[in-house]
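W.,

You were right to be curious about this one. When I first looked at the sequence I had no strong expectations either way, so I just let the prediction run and decided to look at it fresh. Below is the sequence, 161 residues in total, followed by the output.
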Amino acid sequence: MKMIAAVDANWGIGNENKLLVSIPSDMKFFRETTTGHVVVMGRKTLESFPNAKPLPKRVNIVLTKDKNYEKDGAVVVHSVDALKEELKKYDTDEVFVIGGESIYRQLEPLCDTAYITKIDYEYTADAHFPNLDELEGWKVKECSEEQTYFDLEYYFMTYTR
């Protein structure tokens, strides 16, 4: 299983259920990387999408403790064990964890690859990605050349363990 996220200099990923910044090339990378695959997210992440609709051309799986939660176009599971059972239907290389914070933290131990867009800026954030630079076992496999979007500098990085 893989994780994919854009993080700021403090591994922040969001504030008030919104992305910290929208960088077109990062959005394109996310779309190209996850289209045709399985995406796993929490309820609040799904609800942050336009019209709170599942992402097109992907299998959307929502992990939520809310037993009454239902969403057309998404598979809803209520525990990590139920998620593991659901994911047996798919090749784990085709599964991408896409957030938010609690979902990343719960599923990070099950992942072996993380695609991180690392933004060289500190935003105000109330949600964070696990700091892979400090977690045992994770290492940078690839790092792009510096990218820019207006005055922002960022890098496409791949972490593996």
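Here's what jumped out at me. Helices lie at 24-34, 43-48, 80-87, 101-107. And, maybe more interesting for your project: The radius of gyration is 15 Å.

Coffee later to discuss?

I.
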